[in-house]
Amino acid sequence: MLIALLVCPGWVMAAAATKPGERPPALPQFSTSTVSPAEADFQRVMALDDTAHEEIDKWIKDNGAFAKKGAGLADAVLSLKIEQRLEPVKRAYEDFLQRHPRHARGQLAFGSFLNDLGEEADARKRWEKALELDPTNPAAFNNLANSYGQTGPVAKAFELYSKAIELNPRQAIYYHNLGSVIVLHRKEAAAHYRITEQQALRNALELYRLAEKFDPANFQLATDIAQVYYGIQPPAHEAAITAWLRAQSLARDDQEREATHLHLARVKAAAGKLNEARIHLNSVTNAALSSVKSRLARELVDQALPLSAKDDDRRLNLPPTQKP
To answer: What are the residue ranges spanned by the domains of the chain?
Structure first.
């Protein structure tokens, strides 16, 4: 019901950062005679950035594999190696922006680079500069909304997400981000929009659905949609099951797929489908998920016992329920 209000420029929107800084898209490759010298320089810096991050991603992946064999680098050593690899990229951005301080996309990209380094305050300054130079760039609004969503004030983040959506209503990540921060800050969202927390959750769900329209194969988005149902009252078990099955169909690897089985086990147990819940649990074999699997299995035993047996049986000692 309130989705039209949420994306309307006249409403202030609230959000918190849940996604990394958005970089400007690379331009198509043209002959150097068709682009300005500044743009050609910028593309070279972006290429340096991309190459460095590709190398770092490989280091992290390889080190994880070596660590399983007891031969990986210590975290501190790997962090230092990464820092050294990124230093020339940082200098390249700084040199470029000294020569071209009014290059909005350069400011935007450098802000995202700094944000990845954990230099959030400097990243925000770069994004603010990008916005000053180009007030029509939705990525700058989105990145600043992420920043204010993390550090506050949340109301400022609402305004910025609203503008990003207004400028580019076909960008899935803007709806996704706004939905996520409403879920994370549902009390603040309810107070801001003068609605109930349940209405805030349902509006977050509607924002997620809009994001899904433009990014239908996104596993994380599908997972976030399914997670919302844990807070919906009264419980909508069948809708939650459908959402988790959809997330499962989009899983990118076995661990993600098995994690959805854990959620399906929880939801089906809550719906009274204990046998189906056990089947989902038995589908989980990944050692990384074993502790959650064991806890859910104990909860299933507890649910299957008569009330008197539950009261008398001290062996279960179940922890409080929490999402896997």
So the answer is: 217-324
